[in-house]
Specification:
By secondary structure, the protein is mostly helical. It is built from 21 helices and no strands. It folds into three domains: about 60 residues, 434 Repressor (Amino-terminal Domain) (Orthogonal Bundle), CATH 1.10.260; about 110 residues, Serine Threonine Protein Phosphatase 5, Tetratricopeptide repeat, CATH 1.25.40; about 180 residues, no CATH class.
Length: about 375
């Protein structure tokens, strides 16, 4: 919990109301000197005066004394994982009610509010009222953006708000946040490696550079997924993209380090081929999808490998919502539904090869 700032609150509220120390002293039945000592922290009002002061300024007693309950980073991490798991095992509205109670209690803990916004955004599809949940996320993000002091909290909140607007079919509002300019990649991270090198910390410089490369590779895969989806009317471009990205996936062992990124790529490629009535190639992509789902030892987390041997510390420091947005059970259900209930793959549903793949995936993921 942050320290109590009673004197500072009294002085700020007095200024906001345009009240002098004499006037406040008269209203409270104390001397001007007493008010002055309150505001400078030399003394505190008698406890019996707190309700009277709160009523005078039309605020709660908690707000008067500057009571701002906070949660430590590790506590937020544990809370996120617990609530994420409960979204998969309890009725959505029950868990949502608990989330709302936590938000009210820790309304001034901006790192928590940002994680609660991310939690709700990651589970919005499980809600029976997406617009209501998205509006809750927008409200939380706006509070973090306006009141938060940490620039990363503010930046992430703005990004989530843009995601909400895009989901709500309000692209113009999302564009207002993101801006229209295509900015160059962040050069600060590359400079950070040079700074460590100049300080003689070569291992730290290597860690920064490996982390940069790792992030750029995952970003490349993500952008390729979006690009294939965008260019489905140009199969020549799609096939060229598939060839290049599969080369990157194989060369850098993306499948073993981040299976879900690979799965997203294979699925959007299958959908593109299916839309172009290239059934054999679509089934080939789905075969890869099922293979990764059924053979990867860990579908749910990021990690490095023999080459990227200095990224795990960075990954382990991730906030929970950026590690695994949902619990493992929910992810398994989503991967299974991605094949068996995919509206983009109807023309393949009766093919024997597709049926066998669906059965294999059901046996593997449904039985875990």
């Amino acid at each position: 919990m942050k320290e109590i700032n009673l004197g500072r609150v009294i002085m700020r509220k007095r200024h906001e109301r345009g009240v002098t120390q004499d006037e406040l002293a008269f209203a409270m039945g104390v001397s001007k000197a007493a008010v002055s000592k309150w505001e400078t922290g030399q003394s505190y009002p008698d406890i019996t005066l707190l309700p009277q002061l709160a009523a005078f300024f039309n605020i709660s007693t908690d707000e008067l004394i500057g009571y701002e309950p906070q949660m430590l980073k590790e506590d937020i991490r544990k809370l996120y994982y617990r609530l994420s798991s409960e979204f998969a095992s309890r009725p959505f509205e029950e868990v949502l009610k608990e989330c709302e109670e936590i938000i009210r209690k820790y309304y001034s803990c901006f790192p928590l509010l940002r994680q609660m916004a991310l939690l709700l955004l990651n589970h919005v599809s499980e809600s029976g009222d997406m617009d209501r949940i998205l509006q809750m996320v927008v409200s939380l993000c706006l509070r973090v953006e306006k009141e938060g002091e940490d620039m990363e909290d503010v930046r992430q909140a703005a990004f989530m708000r843009a995601c909400c607007y895009l989901t709500q079919q309000k692209p113009e509002k999302a564009l207002e946040i993101l801006g229209e300019d295509i900015n160059p990649l962040n050069q600060e991270r590359a400079m950070l490696a040079q700074v460590y090198l100049a300080m003689g910390k070569s291992q730290k410089a290597e860690e920064v550079l490996q982390t940069n490369m790792y992030q750029y590779l995952l970003s490349l895969i993500s952008d390729a997924v979006a690009f294939v989806y965008l260019k489905q009317d140009d199969m020549e471009k799609v096939e060229e993209t598939i060839q290049r990205i599969r080369g990157v996936i194989d060369l850098y062992h993306i499948e073993s380090m981040h299976p879900c990124a690979t799965l997203n790529f294979y699925m959007v490629c299958a959908q593109a081929y299916c839309g172009a009535e290239m059934d054999e190639k679509a089934l080939g992509m789905l075969k890869e999808y099922v293979r990764v789902c059924t053979t990867s030892p860990d579908l749910y987390s990021l990690h490095g490998d023999e080459y990227f041997d200095r990224v795990d510390a960075w990954i382990n420091n991730f906030e929970p919502g950026n590690k695994a947005p949902k619990d493992a059970r929910t992810i398994r259900q989503s991967l299974l539904a991605g094949l068996t209930n995919n509206p983009s793959l109807p023309r393949l549903a009766k093919k024997e090869e597709f049926i066998k793949m669906a059965e294999s995936l059901q046996f593997k993921l449904g039985g875990e």
